[in-house]
Each structure stands twice: as structure tokens, then as C-alpha cells.
């Protein structure tokens, strides 16, 4: 028997030593307005999706990131091209650690966010 779900990943949580700094970083890089939600057991900032019932998302939360770049990598879709988005990573306090890498479905580049987490920015092929 083989387990094959519609979506294998359903949620990603990214730990942040400074939640507000991370909110500022992700808001700048992805050109969105993340807000800290204090209504639960701990504050979080949820990533938006078009349809919360079927979209895959995640959040930022107060926590201890892995040693810089040593944890898992979360790959994010960007609102525009890599040549436009990668400079925003640097301006927002992160680092770009690879040149764009081409795949049949698009391109991505590895980065380190403001908290030391490994992320990548992904653009779909035209």
C-alpha cells in the first residue's frame, strides 16, 4: 500500500528569534502586509493564501531557529521575478546564498531570512 495524498505538505512553521523583525522581513520580500495575531496560545503571523480551505500556507512564530542555514528549507512563491525579489531579501536584512537554479517548472534561489532560516524564492516558468 502506498500513501499518496493530494498535498504532502500542509503547513510550515518558521521559528523566529524576533517575530516583529521576521514579519517586517517577509512583508518586504513578498510585498504583503503580515500581521501578528495574538489570539492563540502564542503570537503568530500567518502567511495568506487565496483560499484558506484548500491552500497550503504556514506561519512565523516565536522560537529558536536552527543554526543558520542548517534547518529545513521552505520554498516560497514570489509575486514577481527573481531579479526583482532577490534584492528585496538583501534590503530586508537577509542573504541570498545561491544564483538562480533552473528547473523544468521554474527557477529558485536559496536565501537566509532575517532569523537565519533557510528559505528559497521560487518563480514558475512562463
Characterization of the model:
- This protein has a single domain (11-124), classed as Roll (2,3-Dihydroxybiphenyl 1,2-Dioxygenase, domain 1).
- Helix content is 17%, strand content 29%.
- The longest helix has 12 residues, at 19-30.
- Strands 4, 5, 6, 7 and 8 form a 5-stranded mixed β-sheet that branches. A 3-stranded mixed β-sheet has the order 1-3-2.
- The chain has helices at residues 19-30, 82-91, and strands at residues 11-16, 45-46, 57-62, 74-77, 95-96, 101-103, 106-112, 118-124.
- It starts with 10 loop residues before the first strand and ends with a strand.
- The protein is built from 2 helices and 8 strands.
- The chain has 126 residues and is an alpha/beta fold.
Descriptive keywords:
17% helix; 2,3-Dihydroxybiphenyl 1,2-Dioxygenase, domain 1; 3-stranded mixed sheet; 5-stranded mixed sheet; alpha/beta; 126 residues; 8 strands
Q: How large is the share of residues in beta strands?
A: 25-35%
Shape: globular
* CATH hierarchy: architecture: Roll
Order of helices and strands: EHEEEHEEEE
Biggest sheet: strands, sense, closure?
5 strands, mixed
The averaged pLDDT comes out at 93
Describe the SSE topology.
Blueprint: E1 11-16, H1 19-30, E2 45-46, E3 57-62, E4 74-77, H2 82-91, E5 95-96, E6 101-103, E7 106-112, E8 118-124
Parallel strand pairs: 1-3, 4-8
Antiparallel strand pairs: 2-3, 5-7, 6-7, 7-8
Helix pairs in contact: 1-2
Amino acid at each position: 500500500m502506498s500513501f499518496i495524498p493530494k498535498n504532502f505538505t500542509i503547513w510550515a512553521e518558521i521559528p523566529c528569534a524576533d517575530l516583529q523583525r521576521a514579519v517586517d522581513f517577509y512583508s518586504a520580500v513578498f510585498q504583503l502586509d503580515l500581521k501578528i495575531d495574538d489570539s492563540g496560545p502564542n503570537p503568530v503571523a500567518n502567511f495568506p493564501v487565496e483560499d484558506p480551505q484548500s491552500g497550503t500556507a504556514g506561519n512565523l512564530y516565536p522560537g529558536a531557529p536552527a543554526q543558520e542555514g542548517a534547518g529545513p528549507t521552505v520554498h516560497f512563491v514570489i509575486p514577481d521575478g527573481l531579479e526583482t525579489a532577490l534584492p528585496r531579501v538583501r534590503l530586508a536584512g537577509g542573504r541570498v546564498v545561491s544564483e538562480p537554479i533552473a528547473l523544468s517548472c521554474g527557477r529558485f534561489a536559496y536565501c537566509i531570512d532575517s532569523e537565519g532560516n533557510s528559505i528559497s524564492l521560487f518563480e514558475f516558468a512562463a
